[in-house]
Amino acid sequence: MSSADTFLIIGHRGAAGLEPENTLRSFARALDIGVDAIELDVYCVDGQLVVIHDDTLERTTNGRGDVMATAFDALRQLDAGKGERIPTLEEVFALVGDRVTVNIELKGKATAMASARCIASHRDVDALVSSFDHDELALFRQAAPLAKVAPLFHRTSPRMFDIADALQAWSINLSLKLATADRLREIAGRGYRALVYTVNDASVAHQLKSAGAAGVFTDYPDRMQTLRSA
């Protein structure tokens, strides 16, 4: 991850507004634009970590049914957009290497241990692991005590800082609607970075930066380049 004083531009599911989300094509586009990190989502199927957001296939592929109820080999035959396959986390790591941070969101059960093993076997990759499932994230923390983690929040929680403290979190990742100036100040005051999702308007990103956010997740990283000199 970039230095602490750098406002982070994080490609949401790669460059999801420009290419089919969570595909190697999307991640490559984000890298070409020049992001500080990419964000992706993983499920564990037949012992393999597959990169897809939804728990069903219909929205992002030409398949039907539940991701977890579909065999890995069958998932790999699907079209995830523009002829792209659903990638594995291993393939994303091979593409990214040490160029940018990879923010891995744990979406399904059994992702904590599988992700910890995958990260441990790719020491060149800088990983940040996040989840709305704070129990699964705690399992990951136990398996990878030195890794960077970030609890995700989409609604107000009185336990936000208790959860972050227990996880020894690197950042708190929160929705745009939660990212008020007061909350961003409190997060910074507690010693955490605030990473805000999903921000596609550069003027909003500038406001968040001024209010103390440490970075944004965006579907359109090409729109955020003005933040580099702001």
Brief characterization of the structure:
By secondary structure, the chain is α/β, with parallel strands linked by helices. 30% of the residues lie in helices and 21% in strands.
Mind explaining what this structure looks like?
The protein is an alpha/beta fold and 230 residues long. The chain has one domain: Alpha-Beta Barrel (TIM Barrel). The chain has 8 helices and 9 strands. It has an 8-stranded parallel β-barrel with strand order 1-2-4-5-6-7-8-9, surrounded by 7 helices. β5, α5 and β6 form a beta-alpha-beta unit. The chain is globular, with a radius of gyration of 17 Å.
* Helical amount: 25-40%
Largest sheet: 8 strands, parallel, barrel
Write down the Rg.
17 Å
What is the overall silhouette?
globular
In total, how many beta strands? Answer: 9
Please list the strands of the largest sheet in the order they lie side by side.
Answer: 1-2-4-5-6-7-8-9
Low-confidence stretches: none
Describe the protein's topology.
Layout: E1 8-12, H1 24-33, E2 37-45, E3 48-51, H2 72-75, H3 89-96, E4 101-106, H4 111-120, E5 127-131, H5 134-143, E6 148-153, H6 160-167, E7 171-175, H7 181-189, E8 193-197, H8 202-211, E9 215-218
Helix pairs in contact: 1-3, 4-5
Structural features:
230 residues, alpha/beta, TIM Barrel, eight-stranded parallel β-barrel, 8 helices, globular
